[in-house]
Amino acid sequence: MSGRRFPGGDPSARLPETGAAAPPTPGTAVPYPADGASADASADGRLAATVERLRGEVRAAQAAAEGRALIELAKGVIVERLGCGPAQAARQLAELADRAGLSRLELAADIINQAARDRMAEAADEFVRTAVGEPPATAPTAPAPEPPATAPTAPAPAANAPAPAAPAASVSVRLRTAESAALSAGDTQAVAESLLRHALEPLGAVAVAIWTTGPDTSLSLRGHAGFGLDEAARWHYVPPGVTTAARQALTGRRTVRYASLAAAGIPSIGRARHPDGGRVVVPAGTGGRIHGVLEICWARPIDPLPQAVERQIEALAELCAHTLEALPEASSGGFPVLGGFPVPGGDGAPALAELSDGLYDPALVLTPHLGEAGELVDFRIRHANAHFRDPAGRPRGSVDGALLLEAYPATAGGSELFERIERVYATGEPFRARRVRLTALVDQVPLASLADISISRYGASVLLIWRVEDESARLASLLQHAQRLGRVGAFEEDAVAGDITWHGQLYELFGRRPTEPPVALRDLAAHAHPDDADTIRRFLQKVLYQRRVGSTAFRMLRHDGVTRHIRVTAEPALGADGGLQAVRGAYQDISAQHWTEVALTATRDRLAATEEAAEERNRLTLQLQHAIMPPVKPPLDAPGLDVAVRYRPAESESLVGGDWYDTVVLPSKKVLLCVGDVAGHGVEAATGMVVLRNALRGLAVTGAGPGQLLSWLNSVAHHLTAQVTATAVCGIYDPASRTLRWARAGHLPPVLVRGDDAVDLPLLRGLLLGALAEAEYEETELRLEPGDTVLMYTDGLVERRDTAVHDSVAQLLTVARQPSDSLEHRLDQLLARSKSDTDDDTCVVGVQVS
């Protein structure tokens, strides 16, 4: 067989790049084992050489057959173009090959590419543009034969034409050889072997697998090459839902590339043999439908493939799709599978039409509608079942046979229904969804509705089933959920026949089994607490005899010993004669509401008692404070000095504070002037204020200066009170010399008003009272002039939540500068224009020298 030639006798027509080893020359001696080898070893060697020779002959025969197929196809093109016979076509092919400097096999592939202009030709052209770097037209190719008057001759190549591009010829021959071998193969296994040998091994691939998809998106291994038989047996079937490299390409409807399958962590066939190898997985589809998946394996990690190689792989995947479409299905003899059984009828549409007529929901049987290039552009409605209802009111006969997008253009809109149908048709994966919004155009007005959708593919057809949501059923479902959540159960009693209808929730409320009879209204007292018998009797009298709507609450005693608080509401239904026909109503479990009301009542009672006690406490505190410091103090008998005070309690009685003041003439005829503020509110603050105020008054009798008095008062606050802290300003005024000696303990300094100006006095050193066990306080002396006014105040006069103290004091000085006809009027003016918003007490002491 090694001496066979292709038709025409050209030995150069032997298939190049097939990877087949040259068969041994007939008569070549096979070497025998070396001396000392056994006779069995010699026999094994001879048998191995014979097997290898036979394998080479088989490969050569296969290559010759595949090459003959290409040449015969090219001869057919020449016969069709020139209108000549087969013999003349063979001579023309030989002459054109010699003149172009190509083998007949390369020329045949070039002629087929020019005639076909399909994905194979595009892949070869792409490789030429990438590998050669010139447009494919510059490579010497055979001109397309046309019927001339004389025998055709090949044009002489130009003088500057480049040499024949070997890569272009090899790619063209490879792809066309793989195509012819695949189309002539009797099964998918032969297709896989041909693809690997002719097209993929030159790309470095070591194995290939061809998967087919089932109606349930399962994957079946229909052909493989380069993988072991045991590995193929383990991977002969992949159930739906198992994530593999092939399934990712199927569900994504796109090419999936893995530089290293192990790094990606995706299981697939051959992973144990080539753990670090790269993979390229391509969906194999035609006309919008994916018939299978082409998976290519490399032994080592791969870099991103050139675009020309990717185009070759896509062309091979399309070739697989055409082959899978033409080959019979192994599981069903070529018929689509429906419910686990093969369905005869080509694309399955007749069987689906018969099946859809047995459905109670509207259904459409759809088949693909392809464009001129073989791409899916729409679906044709092959059948609308008997329960079909068109939203626009059209009869189903007007829809049968129409294109889906023409009959229902809104399916390509917001609902994305067309895309879902397209995906189901492509992958075979069924689609189910609830409450999908469907839109139909009725007189160009969009009409939307909610429906449950089911889309399935059977063979080459798609079954679309939908169930429009019934408004009454939806409302009934909502009512049922509302009754369950609200623990409400409805009932109806026929007053004439005595029949009672209970909602299922009532059996749970009453603690009765569904097999037990319902409880009639007249027997309700027997299931209630004895103390509620009169309440139920009045309710029944109002409903059954007075025939008015009635409602009452009672305690129900269940058989399981549980007591529930129930509210029953009933309404009588009267007949035409005014007689009682039925009673309708509802029971509601209000146990949670009852105990909530009981808890709220107890809480309200405790809260009322607490509020009353707090009000009484605050009232007593306020009385104590006012008894010690009345809001207005009687005039002070101090010659040459007018004294006025103002005390403004907090607006809320719960915020009774510890602000205090004192003005008293000492035995030495000097006048004690002081204001203070105890930290906190309530009884504790008021008690601390009383202690400090009385202590300071007693200590002042000693004649000590204000600094010493504050030092003693700090000891009282620290040791003799319950951790009271306070601020204070203390002054001793001598009427004889008109001098004011003063000191401060953490308090704001006094304000001096002289003429039209008002300034705050210096900020002397002095820690607040009670902070430390011992503290010293700086004091200073101020000589007053006639008409001068000194103001002492607590922080309640100036403090604001949103303003700094410095700014508040500045506003106080602005008000103090305003002229006033009397000291009393000045203090009233200060209180009236106070910007404080802290709800704190306020004390103001003013002295004016006359």
From TrEMBL:
Residues 18-43, 151-164 have a biased composition (Low complexity). Residues 1-43, 134-164 are annotated as: Disordered. Residues 550-602 form the PAC domain. Transmembrane segments: none annotated. Keywords: Hydrolase. Residues 642-849 form the PPM-type phosphatase domain. Residues 51-112 form the ANTAR domain. PROSITE patterns: ANTAR, PAC, PPM_2. It comes from the Bacteria. Pfam families: ANTAR (PF03861), GAF_2 (PF13185), PAS_3 (PF08447), SpoIIE (PF07228). This is SpoIIE family protein phosphatase. It comes from Streptomyces wedmorensis.
